[in-house]
Specification:
23% of the residues lie in helices and 0% in strands. By secondary structure, it is an all-alpha fold. 34% of the residues are buried.
Length: 267
């Protein structure tokens, strides 16, 4: 029965066998019973006195958990600890349960720890991870959630579809499909040629990089929302000449130029 070395406390072993006659199971070390550590498993059975009392939570006789010291340790541990039998983790989960009654997570103390854990933590029921994640954007993972929707376009990781384009801070009313990190640079008189702003969705840098008028660009976007001509070819749509790069359905067959030429057998 357990350790047969000369250091074993025979009297203690006899006492355990007398107190818990049906406890022993092949492979168990009975010297572990009542040693001050809750060993769980086979030891934490009623026939073993719940590990000789080691697994009994003081003040909560019906509370059966793997690690009794977690009860009342000032951290809401959830799961088997956050039950009525365990006094809601010895009182540690009372505030959590009151604030997030429908939040079901394994580790409640992750909430409001200044790190967005995502998944089930990043839900309305859990207060968007206790404020660590961005409200309304469950898939938005950023360094500082408070920057999202603060009135300033922060760009980078914040300026993504998952984060609602920085909570709307990076959206441009005049160019709703233009997503750049410096919206204030559009239409400032300086052409940022070849940049992310120099595309039709951004009005070719708000008009700074094209000879087309703003109204002409908007009309192009209205008529052909899925057409993405580059700066050099946008002005050549519907100019009477068929341009191969614009000869597709999205661009209306170069604004109709290619249809006209095919109809007249010009190519």
């Amino acid at each position: 029965l357990g350790d047969c070395s000369p250091n074993i406390d025979v009297n203690n072993l006899k006492s355990i066998l007398n107190n818990y006659p049906g406890c022993y199971f092949d492979g168990m070390d009975l010297s572990w019973i009542g040693d001050g550590i809750c060993d769980g498993g086979l030891y934490d059975r009623e026939v073993c006195g719940h590990d000789g009392g080691d697994c009994i939570v003081q003040g909560y006789p019906d509370c059966q958990v793997d690690d009794p010291p977690y009860i009342g340790d000032d951290e809401c541990d959830g799961g088997q600890y956050n039950t009525e039998e365990c006094g809601w983790d010895g009182g540690d989960c009372v505030d959590f349960n009151r604030q997030y009654p429908n939040c079901e997570v394994e580790t409640p103390y992750y909430l409001a720890d200044e790190f967005c854990h995502g998944g089930r933590y990043n839900t309305e029921e859990c207060g968007w991870d206790g404020g660590d994640c961005v409200e309304g954007y469950p898939n938005c993972q950023v360094t500082d959630p408070n920057k999202v929707g603060d009135g300033s376009c922060d760009g980078g990781e914040y300026n993504t579809e998952e984060c609602g384009w920085d909570g709307g801070d990076c959206l441009i009313a005049e160019w709703p499909n233009c997503h750049i990190d410096n919206p204030g640079g559009l239409g400032n008189g300086l052409c940022n040629k070849g940049s992310k702003a120099d595309v039709v969705e951004c009005g070719f840098d708000g008009g700074d990089c094209t000879n087309l008028g703003i109204d002409d660009i908007k009309e192009l976007l209205r008529r052909y929302p899925n057409c993405h001509p580059d700066n050099a070819h946008a002005a050549e749509m519907n100019d009477g000449y068929c341009l191969n790069s614009n000869d597709n359905a999205e661009c209306g067959w170069d604004g109709g130029d290619c249809l006209f030429e095919r109809k007249n057998n010009k190519f």
